[in-house]
TrEMBL record, chains A, B:
It comes from Rhizobium beringeri. CDD domains: WHTH_GntR. SUPFAM superfamilies: Chorismate lyase-like, Winged helix' DNA-binding domain. This is UTRA domain-containing protein. The keyword DNA-binding applies. The keyword Protein biosynthesis does not apply. Keywords: DNA-binding, Plasmid, Transcription, Transcription regulation. Coiled coil: none annotated.
DNA sequence: TAGTGGTCTAGACCACGGG
DNA sequence: CCGTGGTCTAGACCACTAT
């Protein structure tokens, strides 16, 4: 193990074990350098990594201190549906239920903070995992941001994956809610009206322009989000 | 702006703009060092930061390359209820509905991967935000891991916050589901039976031992999780 | 003012891995 | 083999900030 990793895990262990409590002062860099018989820069690298993880806070003049734990910070990785299904060894397919080009309209324009006359591609798509409906995907693609969507049928590639290839990088906002299935949703998902459903809304931007807005509605009895947060992991 | 930050944002911009596409090769370190008239180590620091963000992949001998984007990775920060309410400017209070010391039992023992005869403190707690029920908290605290919970009444501090002070650091697993309110839940939350509710389950460990297991049940019409993922942010 | 972290240099040696 | 990234050194100067 490298020296800076050694220093990193040593301090991490002291914090996790409770040996060093929140607010406790960590030896200054030159002391740690002497202790581990290495240069100050190597110590600095280890402490910077700990600071980036939020385990310590560093202040000029006063030194570095053990941070207050924040176990309530949840980090979740949500893959796109097809990837997630494949990873879990499930069979995934999808159907395009609707595909039309239109204008955004007032209500949605306000919701997306985009002009109401913006041209969009509206998609509705059903995802089927192991033969059972797993999600309705209702998606808006901004055609001025992604003009090539106009010619794409999405017959062979899910819209989410296609956009990943098309748009190089982006910022996304997520909202997770619980909603009751309305009649149409229940019929498509082959469940009961009023059934609790998990809704994931994602709006994606590139360079400040909305690229796409999508809502996935999952039947509550067949879907959940799970994630693990390791403040200790590497 | 420091030199390595300059290099970082330059490359980040090229990737976000699509100027450099996934799979493209990034100049080797000594080329970038010459271009920015700095040492190779400074370049290395910038590239390492980009690699840690998942924007590039680095391979010995072959060089560094633009990574494939993963915008479907969702990072969410979920604060604990009282903190979140305070941050949003809402009034928060809570009531202890039940508090008893007992043994874990078979079914839950299996679920938590803990022995069935383990002594636990079982808590049920109602969180009220701006005068309306916002969550039922059903919690199990392992008394062998947190013996001091035996004497704590939780009259003045919510169990979640108390545990944050008591347990220095930990690993946590989260599950988010949509469930229908049963009769009891609906009564406590002052909503209808069958109402869609958002359920957050969190199991917390320290040094491999379960510390606590908690389920928060939120009425779907009064609660959602929201988060933003910035692959570009600092 | 003095102590601390933030950054940088101009080298160095090593580990890895494709040819 | 040899080009690449991974790590490290022994300094250096600067920025910030508590006192």
């Amino acid at each position: 193990m490298s020296i800076y990793q050694h220093i990193f895990t040593d301090i991490e262990t002291k914090i996790i074990s409770g040996d060093w409590r929140p607010g406790d002062r960590i030896p200054v860099e030159h002391e740690l350098a002497a202790e581990y018989r290495c240069s100050r820069m190597t110590v600095s690298k280890a402490l910077s990594a700990l600071a980036e993880r939020g385990m310590i806070v560093r202040r000029r003049k006063t030194g570095s201190f053990v941070a207050s734990p924040q176990i309530d910070r949840t980090v979740m990785d949500i893959q796109d549906i097809s990837t997630e299904a494949e990873l879990a060894g499930h069979e995934h397919r999808f159907e395009i239920l609707a595909r039309k080009i239109e204008r955004l309209g007032e209500a949605e324009a306000q919701q997306l903070s985009e002009p109401a006359d913006a041209e969009i591609l509206r998609l509705q798509c059903l995802h089927i995992v192991d033969g059972r409906p797993n999600a309705i995907e209702r998606r808006i693609i901004m055609l001025d941001a992604v003009p090539r969507a106009r010619e794409e049928s999405f017959a062979s590639i899910p819209p989410g994956k296609w956009l990943l290839d098309e748009v190089p990088w982006s910022k996304a906002k997520h909202v997770i809610r619980a909603v009751s299935a309305d009649t149409t949703t229940a019929r498509i998902l082959q469940t009961e009206r009023g059934e609790a459903c998990l809704s994931l809304i994602r709006q994606t931007w590139q360079n400040g322009r909305t690229v796409t807005y999508v809502e996935f509605t999952h039947p509550g009895d067949r879907f959940q989000f799970a994630g693990t947060f390791h403040p200790t992991a590497n």
